[in-house]
Specification:
By secondary structure, the protein is mostly helical. The chain contains four helices and two strands. Strands 1-2 form a two-stranded antiparallel ribbon.
Length: 95
């Protein structure tokens, strides 16, 4: 589950400067807050997306390769292949 924006923001260290044309320039507190807000929004969006879609990448990483799946179907039939795939689907269900 995605962290609250307050929790996320507290985990970041506020930037103190930026580099423009090779010159380090100190940030105002407003600029630093704006950057922190942007970082917080981006991280929160990433966490929300992971909550909604993370199961897809977890499943993909655990499924056998396509050639191995086709070999399984050829040697053991569709029902055995479905049983193999179901283990991963059950491990990482859709939210």
């Amino acid at each position: 589950m995605a962290d609250s924006k307050e929790t996320i923001k507290a985990s970041f260290t506020a930037p103190t400067h930026r580099v423009v044309n090779g010159v380090q320039i100190d940030l105002t507190s407003e600029e630093a807050d704006a950057i922190l807000d942007e970082w917080t929004d981006n991280e929160h969006a990433r966490q929300v997306d992971e909550d909604a879609n993370g199961y897809k990448s977890k499943r993909a990483a655990e499924y056998p390769s396509i050639p191995d799946q086709l070999d399984d179907i050829y040697h053991n039939g569709i029902d055995a292949w479905k049983a193999t795939i179901k283990v991963t689907k059950d491990k990482y269900p859709k939210p």
